[in-house]
Write a structure and sequence with these properties.
By secondary structure, this protein is mostly helical. It has nine helices and no strands. It folds into two domains: 43 residues, Arc Repressor Mutant, subunit A, CATH 1.10.10; 142 residues, Tetracycline Repressor, domain 2 (Orthogonal Bundle), CATH 1.10.357.
C-alpha cells in the first residue's frame, strides 16, 4: 500500500474514532506511523486529505453496489437495492456514515472547504445515476437520473438522521422504503 493510501486510511480511522475536529495532520500522521513531513508530501493541507478521505468513504459504499444489483432489474428495484445496501451498511457500521456526515458538516463550518460537500454529493449522484440509467435503458425508459439519484440521497440523509436519533425504533427502514416509493410514484416510475 502506498503512503498516500495509508494516510487516507489513517484519516478515516481517526475521524471514525475521534471526529473531524480531532483529525489534525499531526494526529493522522501518528495514526499512520508516518512523519508530518510525509503528510505534507502527499497532501497540501487538511482539506485535501479530508477530500481524499470522503472520496474513499464514498468508494467503499459504491464498490459494493454493483455486487448487489441484478442486471435485469428495473429503475424502482435498483432504487430500492441502493437504499437497502446503504441501510445495511449504516446499521452494520454506523461510524462510517457518521464520519461522512461529520466531514460534510466540517466542510460547511469552514467556508474555504465548501466545495467538499458539493463534490461528495455530486459523486454520489453520478454513481447512483449510472445504475439508474442502465436500468432505464433496459426497460426502454427515459428518466431524469440525476434528479432521482439526488432524491434518493435526500431520503438516505433524512432517514439516517432519524435512525441515529433512535436506532431502536423499528419503523425507520419502513419509512425509508415508503418515502422512496412515494417519490418514485410521484415521478412516474
Amino acid at each position: 500500500m502506498d503512503r498516500r493510501q495509508q494516510l487516507i486510511d489513517a484519516a478515516i480511522r481517526v475521524i471514525r474514532r475521534d471526529g473531524v475536529e480531532s483529525a489534525s495532520l499531526r494526529t493522522i500522521a501518528s495514526e499512520a506511523k508516518a512523519s508530518l513531513a510525509a503528510v505534507h508530501v502527499c497532501f497540501t493541507n487538511k482539506d485535501e486529505l479530508m477530500q481524499a478521505a470522503a472520496a474513499e468513504l464514498l468508494q467503499q459504499l459504491v464498490r459494493s453496489i454493483p455486487r448487489v444489483v441484478d442486471g435485469s432489474e428495473d429503475v424502482r428495484a435498483i432504487a430500492h437495492r441502493v437504499m437497502d445496501l446503504f441501510w445495511a451498511q449504516m446499521v452494520s457500521d454506523e461510524l462510517n456514515i457518521l464520519a461522512q456526515f461529520e466531514i460534510g458538516i466540517w466542510a460547511k463550518r469552514n467556508p474555504h472547504h465548501g466545495d467538499l460537500s458539493r463534490t461528495v454529493y455530486s459523486d454520489y449522484e453520478k454513481e447512483i445515476s449510472k445504475l439508474l440509467v442502465a436500468a432505464a435503458k433496459r426497460q426502454k425508459q427515459t428518466i431524469a437520473a440525476r434528479n432521482v439519484a439526488r432524491a434518493l440521497i435526500v431520503i438516505m440523509d433524512g432517514c439516517s438522521l432519524q435512525y441515529f436519533a433512535d436506532p431502536s425504533d423499528p419503523r425507520h427502514k419502513d419509512l425509508c422504503d415508503n418515502l422512496v416509493d412515494a417519490y418514485l410514484d410521484r415521478v412516474g416510475l
